[in-house]
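INFO  loader      accepted 1 record
INFO  loader      residues=428
INFO  predictor   begin
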Amino acid sequence: MSIYVIGAGVTGLSFAASLGHAKVLEGSSIIGGKAASYGIDTPVGKFTFDVGGHWFHYQNVPEVLQLLEGLPLQRHTRQAFVYLEGKWFDFPLQQSYKKHEDSRFVNQINRELIAIKEKEADRGGLFHNYLDMLLRSYGPTLFEYFFRDYNRKMFGVSDLAQIQVSQYEQIRNVRTDKNTAGYNSYFYYPQSPLGAQAIPGHLANHACIQFNSQVQSIHLHNRTITINEQTVPWDMVVSTMPLPKLISMLNGADSQITSLSRHLQASRGFILNLGVKKNPLHANKSWIYVSEMKYCCYRIGFYSNVQPSMAPEGYSSIYVECSPLYFKDEEEALSLWPRVIKDLISIGIIEDERDIVTMKPIYLEHNYCLPDDRITSRLRGYLQQHNIYSIGRYGSWHWSSQHEDMKQAIDLAKELKLTKRSFKAVSN
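INFO  predictor   done
INFO  writer      dumping tokens
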């Protein structure tokens, strides 16, 4: 049986490792996808960076840890902060707002959160859209103070009512009363100088990978796939590429399906990785949320605070994630870095440009998918009718964490194994 997996990122490798017999087609010469890492040698030593912050948030998914058995993972307590109006608040803000110096502000939020709690039982847990979810979870004052602009910056969407609420967001954004740490209060990261890429590297040991393999087209009716201009038959395809791109590659697809796929939207991304001189402000921080519109970044993270070997002694390896509200294409994104540097100086992450040892800008055509369950369920259902499965953050077109994508891949492999056993039993 010819099974092809498109993409040697964490999701594709998790599926291949779980199934045990599939050929992974990777278009580049390296594994990892957006969970890749790279190193840069400098006069002060070697810096290691990921393609953005990829922290492994294990949430009671034993199958995922079983797949990573043998890979040393270190548990870290999240040390996250909100930087707002020149002040530092512990994250989550829906707890630390109580430390705000304005007692009227604090009392107003208290009243709103009490009112929300009283109405929760009557209204149920379903939200009309992302705006509705934020307002009903945090109230108008916290929404206007932080959540509105932060989410606008992250998604690159001014009207948050246009965004649907995915299954995972229902969990992440619900206000916490008893657990002051909130969602993802701890995370895991490889005990390795390789960075986040140690995870796909471990999974790759259990997969057959064909590098530099560009998929040009997939013929639905002939059941053939064209790879590097060579056409071969297939029995099943598991894809982790962006769902609209997969649909565009199909030969013989229903025109309505092709048309529907064009309605899916995603934000673009721009990440600036920097090796910088360490200063006291870096200490005891995993990452920082920045919501104010005067800053083009919305999150700043510290690789080397999690894995010290990712920066030379006396230096920090950091990443800065910038909002697509401040650029419309790759050219504009890559020219944004001088403004990012000014923002970092203003916040206090660096004192001046001379603190920067190395820097690399990274543009992402797809960053956060804007979910539309009505469209994606129809597209993925159509694909499954043809024995094509589209999984992962971009294959499912939703927002998800690494462990959720891995769980989806593991579950699909289990389902296919069970189906195969059932078919054999009936045949016999």
